[in-house]
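In this supplementary section we document a worked example of the pipeline. Step one takes a protein sequence of length 253 as its only input; no multiple sequence alignment statistics are reported here. Step two produces a three-dimensional model, which step three serialises into structure tokens for compact storage. The input and output of this example are shown verbatim.
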Amino acid sequence: MRFPEDIQDLCQALLVGLEAALGDKLYGIYVYGAAAFPESDSTGDIDFHVILAETLTHEEHSAINELHSALARDFPPLGVGLDGYYILLKEARDTAPPVHQLQPDITDDSWALHRKHILAGRCIILHGPEPKQVYPPATWAELESALRGELKYVEAHLKDYPDYCILNLCRLMYSFETRDVVISKVAAAGWAHSAFPQWRHPIEVAKRSYARQATPQDRQFMLSEVRGFFRFACVHISESRAQGKVKDGTKRA
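The serialised model returned by step three reads:
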């Protein structure tokens, strides 16, 4: 997969900077998220994993922080939105959420979802081998647990990021209903727009906002609608999970 044009220079600068800072410790760089989906016209940030062959030294840690400061300065606004995890190779090959080597109090709690996306080809390889040589496959139990974690995150941030929450609720409903998690927020919003016509206007406004085209009135509208949409999504997700358990039981029988 090729880079979207608006992030090509930024990703190249990230690669060059990490090669200089880490040398042989740099095992792989994998960009995932909106940038890896062709239907995503814009992205608020760039999601990526940097896979490290060994633990970082203090000097390497400082060099990476300096690199990110330079990228934020030189490539606004996306340079500010570099949202990456630095992960040890031995942890990347495990199913447990890995520790962020720059911020040890943080783990990649959506690890199963990220692995699924990357192994499905929704990634851009900046450096390193094919993802199947790094990432283990994810089971539905792992994916469902990660999806529930994302739902909790949405609930906690309804008033902070109403556009993100509305679009991610679309994706969560789609994923629980179909058991297909490899979908962008934009594509899931298109699905929800057709599936739930009563919520078309909030979804349209959220898409406009995510593309940085919203007005202050749009934000107020989303704030007035997002909690109701969350409640609707929770009911839909609960029904989808119940149906999924019935199907699983039928299969076992």
